[in-house]
Design goal:
Blueprint (H helix, E strand, L loop, with lengths): L6 E4 L2 E7 L1 H18 L6 E6 L3 H8 L7 E11 L2 E10 L9 E9 L3 H12 L4 E9 L12 E5 L5 E2 L15 E4 L3
Parallel strand pairs: 3-4, 3-6, 6-7, 7-8
Antiparallel strand pairs: 1-2, 2-10, 4-5, 9-10
Helix pairs in contact: 1-2
Length: 183
């Protein structure tokens, strides 16, 4: 297990410990329990949003015990610490979604813009139902109006790194989550 640090430096910014790996794992356990209960018998397709959700997805799927499939899509709307409000699809979806239950697995929902466009696309591809599982949710930043079916934790609108979340591609490898220290 990696050593915990109270502060870390990622590129040119400093971050302080915000959410420990133990708290993260408890949230993942609770989400997996709900998903196993709610989606039993539905054979869902889990659609993991890369790059940020890869660690969360790996931990979540270790706890999912229902029949399911997993696929990946890569989307981006960030540049540095700010959202661009423009979603660029980097790796397309090639699964047949007609009449399927699809669960989008996302690391964090902040503005909601990326997911709004993704949900719309999945519905156009005739998914029977689209559900959203996000480890982290920033209600103060949320600009859309769609349900988030499975939320691990609600957090303030701070910029964070670790547990798959990055700053310009760096910092994903920490098992804890850190928030930026304002200077």
């Amino acid at each position: 297990m990696s050593q915990k640090h109270n502060t870390i430096k990622v590129r040119d910014k400093y971050f302080e410990l915000f959410i420990s790996s133990e708290i993260i794992q408890k949230a993942v356990d609770k989400m997996a329990d709900r998903i196993n209960r709610d989606l039993a018998g539905k054979n869902p397709l889990f659609l993991v949003v890369l790059n940020g959700a890869f660690i969360f997805a790996a931990d979540l799927f270790k706890r999912i015990d229902i029949d399911c499939e997993v696929s990946f899509v890569k989307l981006s709307s960030y540049n540095g610490t700010e959202t661009t409000n423009v979603v660029r699809e980097l790796i397309g979806l090639d699964d047949v979604l007609h009449n399927r239950t699809v669960v989008i697995v996302e690391d964090i929902i902040d503005t909601g813009i990326t997911m709004a466009e993704t949900i719309s696309k999945l519905k156009r591809l005739e998914a029977r139902e689209v559900k959203l599982a996000a480890l982290l949710f920033k209600p103060a930043a949320f600009q859309k109006n769609y349900p988030i079916d499975y939320i691990g934790m609600e957090i303030p609108n701070d910029f964070i790194v670790g547990y798959g979340l990055d700053y310009d591609g760096y910092g994903r490898n920490h098992s804890d989550i850190y928030k930026i220290i304002k200077s």
